[in-house]
Specification:
single chain; 227 residues; alpha+beta; Lipocalin; ten-stranded mixed sheet; 3 helices; 10 strands; globular
């Protein structure tokens, strides 16, 4: 066997060290991915303080994006706190006129179902969607949710951040998104999109009544002038 020169020994040693470093980095990356929980695999906690869900929530961020703006979700307990009524409203993208409101009622016990809870709104064209509450923030100002319409398609799931404020502080929201991306697949930084919200978001009924009142006032003044 030919004896290796010191130069060859150095090169082989260097190659071995580089190989170990590369494998180490790859291993760390895989380990990090293993920590990210998918919506299908996530098991909701068996205990949930439903009272913390009551009230109005506003869509802050979603992955992937959708075609809605001014997303609002109102949660109310009914029937001796055994049922949850969910009323969701939204406007079309790039609009502040809320023209869609839909309702659904689910059992409180379903909120902690390991397989998630299915929401079927009262609109005929709505597909049933399965949701899971990933967590309610310790600050009680935000909630992380995920969902899917087809459990057979892993990539069809979505992540959703709801906040108590219609327009969340940007720096604070970035922190929420950053933390969520460390634990759940559906909150990757390059795919989470902020939902369009505005202080001008209002239902079509709220907008129509003042306009109608103004028109009637003008007509009334005109008729009085004619007489």
């Amino acid at each position: 066997m030919t004896k290796m020169s010191k130069h060859q020994q150095f090169l082989y040693t260097l190659l071995a060290v580089v190989s170990v470093l590369v494998l180490s980095v790859e291993g760390q990356g895989e380990g990090h991915d293993d920590l990210l929980v998918s919506c299908l695999d996530f098991t909701p906690p068996s205990l949930l303080n439903v009272k913390e869900l009551e009230g109005a929530w506003y869509g802050a961020s979603r992955s992937p994006a959708h075609k809605f703006a001014c997303v609002e979700m109102k949660v109310a307990l009914t029937q001796n706190d055994t049922k949850v009524k969910i009323t969701t409203s939204h406007a079309a993208l790039n609009s502040t006129l809320i023209n869609t409101a839909k309702e659904a009622v689910i059992d409180v016990l379903d909120l902690t179902n390991p397989n998630g809870f299915t929401v079927l709104y009262n609109l005929t064209d709505e597909k049933p969607t399965t949701y899971k509450i990933l967590e309610i923030g310790a600050d009680k100002k935000h909630a992380l949710m995920c969902g899917y319409t087809n459990p057979q398609i892993q990539n069809a799931s979505f992540g959703l951040i709801m906040t108590r404020e219609r327009i969340a502080d940007k720096k604070w929201l970035e922190g929420v998104k950053d933390e969520a991306s460390k634990h759940f697949f559906n909150f990757a930084k390059d795919s989470v999109v902020d939902i369009q919200q505005s202080d001008k978001c209002a239902s079509s009924a709220e907008v129509a009544v003042p306009v109608l009142s103004t028109i009637l006032g003008v007509v009334y003044s005109f008729l009085r002038f004619m007489h």
